[in-house]
Write a structure and sequence with these properties.
With 389 residues, the chain is α/β, with parallel strands linked by helices. It contains 12 helices and 14 strands. The strands form 3 sheets. The chain has a 7-stranded mixed β-sheet, with helices on both faces. It is globular, with a radius of gyration of 22 Å.
């Protein structure tokens, strides 16, 4: 009799004021590069999710259930990313997966995302086909750069600097190919000529012949689309051939790791501009201020200029809050219900901006070219804002 009374009492408590003890946590999975070429970006994404999860749980969780962050390292390897998603799909308490950093990994995962009916939130990878993936319904939602939009900003910035002839240096991946298509279209619209296209492989260490060829072409600038290791190889070869003054207009891949520490010359000797979507000196809204305070308190870092991968941090933070709100609004954690609420959410106050709306049924990208801006490295290797937009 005493046992029965205790069980009934526990059941009553769990179904009234403390739902947390009746149901297991809902899982937000992170599938990111946490140990290879984009560690800073992967860690920033994980921290953005972590900070949002802590805030959501402090407000009662999702449908009375706490959120739990689970991270898996795909190391920039598509096969490992697919393996991670298969593992996540076996968890009945999974709410969504947050991916990062690499476009090739996300592109390889598209079919398994939809085969397993997973909700994928993308806070970094910019390849256009990640979202334009021909799946209907589409389970991928992105708060990040979209390559087709990035090209207009990169080329527009070059045009403002009176640059007329450019060489393209692109990593030999789906991300590089995505950018070649969009950059080619954009330069044709803005009167800039592509003098040549040069490809660099992951882990390639010699780029001397390509830089020599670019030097002979007498281009006005280089548009760079690489991650950190390959970007450093390109810049070091520019220095070796006396071309440090050549303007480099870069996509944001070089901001995903310890770029400046790999350079043979001080960063101040180069002319590098880098695409970004978020900077604590640019975004001044209350949610950005909250994110800054939470980061400082949680990780013991005071100077926001020293934060690494802040775009991934802010994007992941906003996406996690979005999916939590969508699930609460849907009164369900079923993928179809949460997806519908993401597609019909009228407005959302985020750290990056006020999204009005963040997504629609036809548009699963939340940021567009007017949300992007260019930054430069200061002498300490920190990205700072510039008035050139």
């Amino acid at each position: 009799m005493r046992l029965r009374i205790c069980v009934l009492l526990l059941f009553t408590l769990c179904t009234s004021h403390s739902v947390y003890c009746a149901q297991p946590p809902l899982v937000i999975g992170v599938d990111a590069d946490l140990s290879a070429v984009a560690v800073d970006g992967g860690v920033a994404i994980s921290r953005g999710v972590e900070l949002a999860v802590e805030e959501i749980n402090a407000q009662g969780g999702v449908l009375g259930r706490p959120l739990k962050l689970v991270t898996k390292d795909h190391r920039g390897n598509p096969a490992r990313g697919i393996h991670n998603l298969k593992q996540y799909s076996e968890n009945p308490d999974l709410l969504a997966v947050v991916g990062g950093v690499h476009t090739p990994v996300l592109l390889a995962e598209i079919d398994i995302i939809h085969e397993k009916n997973l909700l994928m939130l993308v806070p970094w990878a910019a390849g256009t086909p990640i979202v334009d993936n021909n799946h209907n319904p589409n389970n991928v939602f992105r708060v990040s750069v979209r390559d087709s939009e990035a090209a207009t900003v990169l080329v527009g910035y070059a045009k403002k600097r009176a640059i007329k002839r450019v060489a393209l240096v692109l990593e030999r991946t789906g991300w590089g190919r995505s950018n070649l298509a969009s950059l080619t279209e954009s330069v044709s619209q803005q009167g800039i000529t592509i003098s040549s296209v040069h490809w660099i492989n992951w882990q390639q260490t010699d780029f001397s012949e390509d830089i020599s060829s670019i030097k002979d072409e007498s281009v006005d600038a280089i548009i760079l689309v690489t991650n950190v290791p390959e970007g450093a190889v390109v810049m070091n070869e520019l220095a070796a051939q006396g071309m440090t003054s050549t303007p480099v207009v870069s996509h944001w891949g070089i901001a995903s790791g310890e770029f400046t520490s790999l350079l043979d010359k001080p960063i101040g000797e180069f002319d590098i501009s880098v695409l970004q979507t978020f900077h604590f000196n640019h975004q001044k809204n209350e949610n950005a201020k909250q994110l800054l305070a939470s980061y400082q308190n949680r990780y013991g870092v005071n100077d926001p200029l020293t934060f690494k991968g802040v775009t991934g941090l802010a994007h992941a933070y906003d996406l996690t809050h979005m999916v939590a709100q969508a699930a609460n609004d849907a009164n369900s954690v079923q993928v179809s219900a949460v997806r519908e609420k993401l597609e019909t959410m009228a407005t959302f106050e985020g750290a990056v901006k006020q999204y009005s709306p963040p997504f629609t049924k036809e548009r699963h990208d939340a940021l567009w070219s007017n949300d992007y801006f260019m930054t430069k490295f200061n002498d300490k290797g920190q990205l700072v804002t510039t008035d050139d937009r």
